[in-house]
Each structure stands twice: as C-alpha cells, then as structure tokens.
Amino acid sequence: MSESAEPRAKPGSQTSLRNANQRRVLDTVRRNGHLTQAQISRRTALAPSTVSNIVHELIGAGLLVMEADNAGRRGQLISFSGSAGHVVGIDVGNRHLTVAVADLNQRILAQRRHDLPAGHRFADDLELAGRALDDLLDGLGTARPELLAAGLTLPAPVDLDGRLISASSILPAWSGIDVREEAGRRLGLPVVVENDANAGALGEHAWGAGRGARNMAYIKIGHGVGSGLILNGALFRGATGSAGEIGHSTVDERGRVCRCGNRGCLETYVSSEETTRLLADTHGPDLTIPDLVAAAAAGDVGCARVIGDTGRMLGTSVANLCNIINPELVVVGGEISRAGDLLLDPLREIVSRYGVRGSVQDLRIEAARLGIQAHVAGAVILALQHAELPAGAGPTR
Ligand SMILES: [Zn+2]
C-alpha cells in the first residue's frame, strides 16, 4: 500500500511526533469504533491532555466528530465523521457478487447482491462491481474520491501478495490473474484480496458469533468448503496463505476425485452440490440449499437426513482440526448453517466422539450469526484495516 501523500516530517521533530500520535488516535478509533477520550487515552497510552488536543485538531480537520453517548453514561463519544471517507467490500462467490459501502465507524451503509452465471470472468465481474459501486455511491450522495480502500474476497486460496494460489480454483476463469493489482487498477483504489473463508472468520469474529473469541475456526460450507482460523485473536494465514483448507482433508482415499486432484476430500461429500445431488432423484434437480433447509424445518425426513449426514461427515475433520488448534469456538457458515441444530447436533456428537477430551470438552459449535453476510463483512473489515487514513491535521499543516 502506498505511503501517505503528506509531506514527510523530519523523524524526531515535533511535527513528526504529533503526526505519529494522531495516527495512534485515528487507528484506535478505527479499530474500536466509538470511544470516549478517556478510553482513547488508556488505549494509546497518551496523556489525556495530548488526546484532547489531538481530538480537537482532528475534529477541526473534519475527520472526527464528538457526539453525546445515547446511554448517557460515558460522556462524549469520539467517532469518524461522514466526510472522513468510506471503504468498499466486494465478495465474489461461485454464483454471486456482493458489493457493500461502509463508513470508517464500521457501519455498512448500503449494499447490493447480484447473481452471476457459471464460469463468470474476472473482467466482467470487476465491471459489474464497479457499476454496482457507482450506483451505491449515488444513492449515498458520496463520490469515488472519498473511497479509501477495497477488500475483495474470493472462494479460492489467495497468497500473501493477493494472487490466486491454485489453478484448480473454483474460479477457473480467474486463474493466473494478479487480482490485487488488476482489481486495484480497475477500481482505482488500493485493494486487499482474501480467501472468503478467511474473510468469513474475520466477519464473524468482529461482528458475529465469534465476538470476543480468542481462538476460533470458521467453517464455510458452500460450492467449496474451507475454514478460516483466528488464533490468539488474529487471522492465521500460514506460510503461503493456504492455511485452513479443511475441505481437502481426506475422508476416503478411494473416494471420488476432487477438483484439487486428490480423492475422497471432505468437499466431495459436503459441498452444496453434493448435498443437493443426493436429493435430485426424490426432490428434483433444481433443489437449492435454502429449499432443502426449509423443507427439513417443515418435517421433510429425507432433507433432514441429508443435513444431519452433512453434520456427521464434517465431524471427523472438525474433530481433527480441534485436536490440533484447540479453539474455544467453531462457527459454521454458508447457507446450510441456517438449518441450525439439525446440522450442528450431529456435528457436535461426532466432534465429542473423536475429539481429544482436553480439546473439545468446553468447545462451543455455533451457526454463523451473519449468515451469508459474513464474507462481505470480512471484506469491509479488511478494507478498514488497510485504508490509509488522512492525518497530519493541525496548525502546521
Ligand atoms: Zn480436494
């Protein structure tokens, strides 16, 4: 990401110190949302008088605002002003594209979801995302120059430089593209690219079922199956960005050949396609996962059986994962997670059977609270983390 366009202050000078302190205040408000000046002071370890000066400078520069706390308990709360800038989250799935615009106070202001054809191409997707973005900005009365960064999530492994790792990816038409570079050029913004299971983990950890969890695994069940790992409070991406590929853990080495080239991977048993395929003869070829979940909830025995079996198939791989990383929480996401305990009870039973007691006795297994929103929420969080905030406000500016 490019450095700030601010003229560089000499290291160690008063101006450089004030800029550094401003950044600490801005970053603290960005990470935590609304805070009192006393909370900012504690979290930045800056003196209350220093915080007060900086906050007033940043209010003067139009970046921060001060509002009364609605609950009336904590005094004035500091947050970003509407004109401080916005970020974009873009979630590209196997058959959908969602674009969301958020402010710097971690609020999604507007979003739009589009269906995509099979085999959709990168250039078309980015063009659609650009049009959707312009429409959303029009509706909000905001302009492109106010955008600071975009987060883009994909159902494919992404390396630490934002490139697709695997040629056998779920997005064959995206193969070989330097997604971060190309998307950045097309959108005219700094773009951070992430795998959708990792983004889902970030989303659920920040805003959903995983709030406050120190160690958690997010399991995404969709066209592909993957996991995102939060370890010691932060996303764990592994040496190359490929951590968490639970969908390609081997269930039966003599099973069907998987798109990764191995045989009998978990994904070949529990992906959306496999789940609906099991019911094609009895329930028709066009059954979707939401149909399946609704039918099971209404008492359809076959649909309930398939959902329960999906939970059981997941169980062994999730137990193995828990034996290794010992999370306190497993969050299950994707459309099928709306089945709730129909899916989760069989999963819990198998995890408690195959998990080492010390690893799983206090483990919670829950459905994603953000549902299919988890990935675009993660994209927004990534954009917020990578947005270069304007700073350097003050008398010497
Ligand atoms: Zn595989």
Automatic annotation (TrEMBL):
Chain intervals with Polar residues compositional bias: 12-22
Residue stretches making up the HTH marR-type domain: 21-74
Gene3D superfamilies: 3.30.420.40, Winged helix-like DNA-binding domain superfamily/Winged helix DNA-binding domain (1.10.10.10)
Pfam families noted in UniProt: MarR_2, ROK
Gene Ontology MF: a single term: DNA-binding transcription factor activity
Organism superkingdom: Bacteria
Region (Disordered): 1-32
Family matches, as PANTHER family: GLUCOKINASE, ROK (REPRESSOR, ORF, KINASE) FAMILY
Protein name: Transcriptional regulator
Organism name: Kocuria turfanensis
